[in-house]
Specification:
single chain, 435 residues, mainly alpha
Length: 435
């Protein structure tokens, strides 16, 4: 019974997680046919946009746990009120980001070193896609609310439909209408806004049916912001670790840097499987704590960790065994293929280690234990710095240097996160029962 509940939440969540990156993938394929400068501009602009949205992922994480807790306590009306507060917070933050984005677009693009040929294309994509940022933040908040209500299927349907609509819209505006790279940004922004309106309508309809006020409640919005701040700090520590890893890969040489991009792309795809289990853990832990059923929560934690470990072993074995067949899909350079192959073997072996921090992050987010997660993220980052320094100083250039870099990241940084979150989960301070 518990396995079915986990899979009923995790599998649709996995589908939605995989569907969302298709926005950037489709834009890359469509814009790539315009020319190298256009594709380079898209790379720069999409990096800025994806990083911005990633910083606000707490809108989904914090909302999921809070909504699930109230639902578990039998307070469906209160759960929907929390969901509405999250949506209002997303709208406010989205408007702020929109204003800042338009104001800072030009200097930020120049500061990132864009050439005179690339900068106009990056700015064109940014300016037409920025209106979609408030939409994406609302999508995060509404998705979090629906996950807390134990509904991961609706976000999946909307994500898949959005990916299909984005593909069609990009081709139409870029190549048929002739808008160039600006058409790709406009298509993406339009679809993101439509997705936000669709998910908002689902939450609003449920709220109205149960007599929940649709007006913004300042205290509720502020409470959501307070709950999200520690998760923002936790996300910043993760992004810092990723950026420092890329910087270290750069110091190892051009071949390891190119191979790192391949390994990282496969790693991110594999991480979706573990993220889906974390989402299921969030929803079920929040629900169990709200219902005051600690034994059920412990069972969820144990079973999600077991599923995570099995998923890590299975996905890791797939990557390690088939890595040699995957690398030619990305590059024809034998040196890069060799380095990437060794890197894929390294992450395949270490994937089970990564499963624990992913799942336990979900557990503690579902419990609303964001302050501890922020602290644990800082500790893991501090522990990771000397490992990065050792790689930069002593690791050999070439393929072996890349292997040691991924051992440091997957084994060191994620290992530290696994240890700190596991120690917390062993205790009971995070298991606050009720609303």
């Amino acid at each position: 019974m518990l396995d079915r509940r986990i899979l009923d939440l995790a599998l649709p969540a996995l589908g939605a997680l995989v569907a969302e990156p298709l926005f950037v993938l489709v834009d890359s394929a469509v814009v790539g046919r315009l020319g190298t400068s256009e594709l380079a501009g898209l790379t720069l602009a999409s990096t800025l946009l994806v990083t911005t949205v990633a910083l606000f992922i707490f809108l989904a994480y914090a909302t999921t746990g809070a909504v699930a807790r109230r639902l578990g306590a039998g307070d469906e009306k209160g759960a929907l009120a929390v969901g509405m507060d999250g949506i209002w917070l997303a709208l406010g933050l989205g408007a702020l980001v929109l204003v800042v984005g338009y104001t800072a677009a030009d200097p930020v693009v120049r500061a990132m070193g864009a050439s005179d040929e690339v900068a106009p294309h990056a700015l064109a994509y940014l300016r037409t896609s920025l209106p979609g940022i408030p939409g994406m933040l609302v999508v995060l908040a509404a998705t979090g609310a629906l996950r807390g209500l134990q509904d991961t299927r609706t976000p999946l349907r909307v994500a898949v439909a959005g990916a299909i609509a984005n593909a069609a819209g990009s081709v139409l505006l870029v190549h048929v209408v002739g808008m160039g790279i600006a058409g790709s940004g406009l298509a993406t922004a339009s679809v993101q806004i439509i997705m936000a309106l669709t998910l908002m309508w689902v939450v609003l309809r449920a709220a109205r049916t149960r007599g929940v006020s649709l007006r913004p409640e300042p205290r509720g919005i502020l409470a959501n912001a307070r709950a999200g701040l520690p998760l923002l700090i936790r996300t910043l520590t993760l992004r810092a670790a990723i950026l420092l890893t890329v910087a270290t890969a750069t110091s190892l040489g051009d071949v390891p840097l190119a191979a790192h991009q391949i390994v990282n792309s496969v790693w991110m795809l594999a991480a979706f499987v573990l993220d889906a289990l974390a989402i299921a853990a969030q929803a079920l832990v929040g629900h169990g704590l709200g219902a005051r059923r600690p034994a059920e929560v412990r069972a969820v934690v144990r079973r999600c960790l077991q599923w995570g470990t099995l998923a890590g072993i299975g996905v890791g074995a797939f990557i390690a065994l088939l890595g040699g067949f995957l690398t030619p899909l990305f590059t024809s350079d034998p040196a890069v293929q060799h380095a990437a192959h060794l890197g894929l073997i390294a992450i395949g072996v270490l994937m089970p280690v990564a499963a624990w921090p992913f799942v336990l992050d979900g557990v503690l987010m579902g419990a609303g234990d964001g302050v501890y997660l922020a602290w644990a993220g800082g500790v893991a980052l501090i522990a990771y710095l000397p490992l990065l320094g050792a790689v930069a100083r002593w690791a050999p250039e070439g393929a072996l240097g890349l292997v040691w870099l991924w051992v440091a990241f997957a084994g060191g940084f994620l290992g530290a996160r696994a240890l700190t979150t596991w120690l917390r989960s062993r205790g009971s301070r995070w298991m606050v029962l009720g609303v």
